[in-house]
Amino acid sequence: MKFTAGQKVRLIDDPSSQGTITGRTRERAGTIYYKVHFNTHSSFQPDYVLELIKENEDWDQLLEKKQYGRPVILRQHLTHIYLNGKLANLVYSMGATTTDFYAYQFKPVLSFLESPSNGLLIADEVGLGKTIEAGLVWTELKAREDAKNLLVICPAMLRDKWVDELETKFGEDARIMNSTDLLAELKRTDYIGKPKVFVSSIQGLRPPKNWRDENLTPTTKSAQLARFLEQQSTEEPILDMLIIDEAHYLRNKETKSNKLGVMLTNISKNNLLLSATPINLDNQDLFQLLHLIDPDNFDDLSVFPSIIDANEPLLRAKTLALNPNSESNEITEQLNRAQKNILLRNNRQLASILESDIDKTLESEAQRVRLADRIDNINLLKHAFVRTRKKDILEHFQIIRKVIPEFIDFDPNGPELDFYNRVSAAIRSYAKAARLPPGFLLSNPQRQLSSCMVAAVQYWQQVRIDNEIDAKLEEESLYETLGYEVDNDIDPKKVMPLVEHIQEQVLPYINIDDLRNGDSKFARFLEVIKDTLDKDKNEKIIVFSYFRNTLFYLEQRLNEENISTEILMGGMKNKQEIINTFRENKKINILLSTEVASEGVDLQFSKIIVNYDLPWNPMKIEQRIGRIDRLGQQSDQILIWNLLHSGTVDERIYNRLLRRLKIFERALGGVNDVVGQEIKQLHHDMIFGDLSEEEQEEKIKQAAIAIENRRDHEEKLEAEASSLIAHGGYILEQVQAAYDFNKRITDNDLQLYTRDYLNTYVQGHRLEYKNPEQDLYLLSLPINLMEKITRFINENKLNGLSRIGSNPSIMIKFENKVGFDPNRKKYETINQFHPLIRFISDDLERKGESFHPLIAASLSTEDMQSSIDPGIYFFALNKWAFSGLKTEEELRARVIRLGDSDYKSNDESWEIINTTRVKASDWLTVDADLNKERIDVEEILDDCIYKLDEDFNESKTDRETANLDRIQFQRDTAIRKSERRLEMLYQRLENYRSQQKERMVPATLGQIEAQERRTAIKIKELEQREQMSSNRDEICVGVIRIQ
Question: Partner of 670 at 20 to 30 A CA spacing, among 201, 585, 783, 939?
Fold first, then answer.
């Protein structure tokens, strides 16, 4: 047979050895030898060993010729599908970051991918890693949608932490932005290179009063930002993702923070809210947070109970479906109950299940699981929020809290007791005479007195009536300390008369040197600190105090004892840098911190907390403890040391309230509101009530009972709520299976994918293993390929992400991680997002070459992660694609062992196929071995294909009904959203006309017209997607020997 240059050929005896005719020939003894360029080399081959590769040759034709492909072909093709496709059954963020693997942290990822509103509330308990979960969602979004920009807003204290986490764990160059910087960035559209990631404080972006009035606030950048956000809210989103951390600060819709949240979610395609707020379905706070991420479907608090009612029978039906002893009539009864609810009356998925033969569905465990999953997909709350509690994942949290209360007695004849009594009397007499209402500012002197008497004197001696106080700083301090906004302007003169009263009535009678020399609390503190450091000189100790002056005092006294410290408090820049210094510097043993470090900060490298003073609010104490009692704590036991003076109201609060609630031994749970109300009232009664000790005792007891009762009630509500969104267990199983069976992109995948491409298509390249210790390769590419890569980078705006297109030789490392790499100047890390991988994927997609559809491979049982019996396995492998409102791809296989009657499960099938892809060797004697067994290979493979056809048709039916429900959901949402935006625009139009701003009228009328046009286009697009298209691509069939 004659061949011509460029034709694809293969060896007849080894069809996996494929190459291209170069055009060069030789003739010897009447035989023509053709030079063929194979993957790894070029050689002359006689014409009688070559055959032309026919396009789209079927597997059964190859089987007749006994032409099995090698596993390298399967590896090349499947890895390309992994990297080029957006497979529904692959978790792209898994293993792609520098975070440790915890299955529960991927619950938000899977829930977010299914969210019809592109929004999710992550409500995990403190210490479980909500920041990590948000980063994983962002990484997944980048892989699937090529997201380009992200905005994180959080309390000011947490900005540095977010920047650090995003860089070290997720490889993002995040920048802290004020309102001026952010406004400029949001107006940009020319994003080139890496995604742009911004971090801003909630406080710094909140709109000021009268922000709409351009005349009153013409130069205020936060007002300009607010006006821009409002204008943009009726346009297409300009953010790919918004993350709001500590979102409970936004739960009150009357606050400026909530208004900011509404504005930002309106301009973002995807929204993620993080909060430790408990899932209490009777709580308006939960509804308000859900309203932020999905205002069109959680738009009426009065309808919220109906959503709960609709879910209840669905969860019962799902539980029954998974119970092998349940009957079909029990399941049908619950589904009929659900269908009677107005919210589910027209749900096509529910109708489809009721119309099916449920009796037949219950015949096997696999069918029961599928039915439960179909029911679960109807759940109206399933993809609105996720919550994990520590007790749900006890294998990660076996930490014991050891609590040491230390009550220090006053010397009855010493200066401390006299000073305490004088100040307490002065505060009560002043408040009573002035008839002042309760307030945080007025209580400060009493609280500082309990913290440190020397520091209190030093502070009061410095304060003067005419001092100016930075109102903005004071507001931020209150915001972080109290957890809610103080909307009234801070007037420093409200507190100064009380301080002046103390200055006149108390300080003249006090000798500060006597207080310092007789400081009983510090003496005991120093004794224990020295003893601790004598036992372990590298011990890291966190010391909390409410007051800066206390920390300054402790710093001075400890430095006098040659004990090094770091201070962390509000107003400092680079707070995360301070924490990093404390963690890494072995000479620094003590971190002195105010309340700013008690929220959202990771200090689990320490196992000792000292409460130098105690908040009366138990929630604040739990936040302090939560800094070290969290994921990543290596010690089995943490120490909580509480220092108080005996005979004070603080001691009574501790013994009667905090000890009764066991706040130090166990998390208080979700009782923020009632705790806040009770403590605020208790605080007022203790300081301003002029109560006897017996009356104080009774007040404390009443507060403890109220909090205790509410905690029990909240626990009950949360248990009920968990049952009503009970999807967590199923998701965890999916995540664990994805991890166990390598449903992710590995380092080896990237290395083999690159090597196979270069060997097949690129002459004159080198990929040489150079450094085994660091797994480094030397990559050298020919000039023509470098030019193609450079052009690809420019066209796709990937500039600055790689040096490969400009350097003829470069050291690289295949590592599918996106975290910070300190050695990035020495070598280039190749991950799934790298321009080289994206170029190869794009080039292979454009080539569109055919794939050998019959494979033979050999494995060892030692290659398998789970227990797979030896034997001969037959398989059929498909790629399914469904395109409706969503476009999804899925790899599905059917695998059966010779002699078995049942097919392997989906997870077992995936493991066998994926292990074959990565680890299989050639099975060169496959034909002879199968002939010995007298096996009808074609019949078995046909059966595998038939089973896949059945699976495909079932999945297609499910997806079609789900697609119709999604279409209806999106149509209703689009209409409601348009009505809401038009109402805003018409209101804006009315305001302009009433203010005689006629120049703004034409632009607003244009926005109204544009909004109506966009809605009409959206509805039309939805109608066009009602008819879902589907495609089944038969990738290959084959036989695998496991021995």
Answer: 201
Between strands 196-201 and 175-176, the pairing is parallel
- The CA–CA distances, whole Å, from 601 to 131, 158, 866 equal 10, 7, 39
Residue for token pair 């890569």: 789
Angle between helices 71-84 and 906-919 (to 10 degrees): 110
pLDDT single digits (tens) 354-377:
988 888 888 777 788 778 888 887
pLDDT over 90 at 539, yes or no: yes
Could you write out the DSSP letters of every residue in 973-989? HHHHHHHHHHHHHHHHH
Residues 94-148 pLDDT 10s? 888 888 888 888 888 888 888 877 899 998 877 788 999 999 999 999 888 888 8
765-785 pLDDT, tens digit each: 999 988 888 889 999 999 999
CA dist., res. 550 & res. 871, Å (int): 73
CA–CA distance, 132 with 100 (Å, rounded to integer): 10
d(CA 290, CA 287): 5
Spatial contact of 891 and 87, defined as CB atoms under 8 Å apart: yes
DSSP-derived secondary structure letter, 655:
I
The torsion of the CA quartet 185, 187, 190, 196, rounded to 10 degrees, works out to 30
Q: Which residues pair with 34 in a beta bridge?
A: 25, 45
User: How many CB atoms neighbour CB 806 within 10 A?
Assistant: 11
Beta strands per DSSP E along 255-399: 271-274, 385-386
| Residue 167 predicted with pLDDT over 60 | yes
Rounded Cα gap, residues 215 and 17, in angstroms: 77
User: How confident is residue 868, by pLDDT bands cut at 50, 70 and 90?
Assistant: confident
**Separation between Cα atoms, residue 50 and residue 64, nearest integer Å:** 17
Question: H-helix or E-strand containing 161?
Answer: helix 159-170
Tokens matching residue 816? 């599918």
Residue 812's φ and ψ, nearest 5 degrees, are -130, 160
Report the C-alpha gap between 585 and 636 in whole angstroms: 24
On the 0-12 / 13-18 / 19+ scale of CB atoms within 10 A, 330 is: middle
- Note whether 288 and 251 are within 8 A (CB): yes
Sign of CA dihedral 285, 289, 294, 295: positive
Alpha helices in 403-495 (DSSP H): 415-434, 440-451, 453-462, 471-482
The count of other CB atoms within 10 Å of the CB of residue 526 is: 17
Q: Calculate mean pLDDT across residues 567-576.
A: 75
